[in-house]
Specification:
By secondary structure, the chain is α+β, with helices and mostly antiparallel strands. The protein has 4 helices and 4 strands, in the order αβαβαββα. A 4-stranded mixed beta sheet has the order 1-2-4-3, with helices on both faces. It is globular and about 40 Å long. The model has no long low-confidence stretch (mean pLDDT 91). This is RNA-binding protein. Pfam families: CRS1_YhbY.
């Protein structure tokens, strides 16, 4: 990922606040981390730009491993981790879905 795509502190704070009341949309379970799972995340983020995921107790991976897998294999940014929950952000490519990124970009 290029450094100019990294979020600044103010942007991360906005995203964390925006995600506060969200419920996790995806889980990492015993099937672990796969390309198909990443494709699902990317599709969801194209529509929403900001989602939460959680690691189930049965997951064979740690939060740090999950974060690294996501960031190393996609252009998705992990904005925050709280316990077994990760907050993910990726600007939508379709302008109609850029409700959050248009605000974040102007910060």
């Amino acid at each position: 990922m290029e450094d100019d795509n990294l979020l600044r502190g103010k942007q991360k704070r906005y995203l964390r606040a925006h995600a506060h009341n969200m419920r996790p949309l995806f889980s990492v379970g015993k099937n672990g981390l796969t390309e198909a799972w990443l494709d699902q995340l990317t599709g969801a983020l194209e529509n929403r730009e900001l989602i939460k995921i959680n690691l189930q107790q049965s997951a064979d991976v740690t939060v740090d491993e999950t974060k690294a897998f996501i960031e190393d294999n996609t252009n998705i940014q992990v904005v925050q981790t709280i316990g077994r929950v990760l907050v993910l952000y990726r600007p939508a490519t379709d302008e109609e879905n850029q409700r959050i990124s248009s605000i974040v970009e102007d910060m």
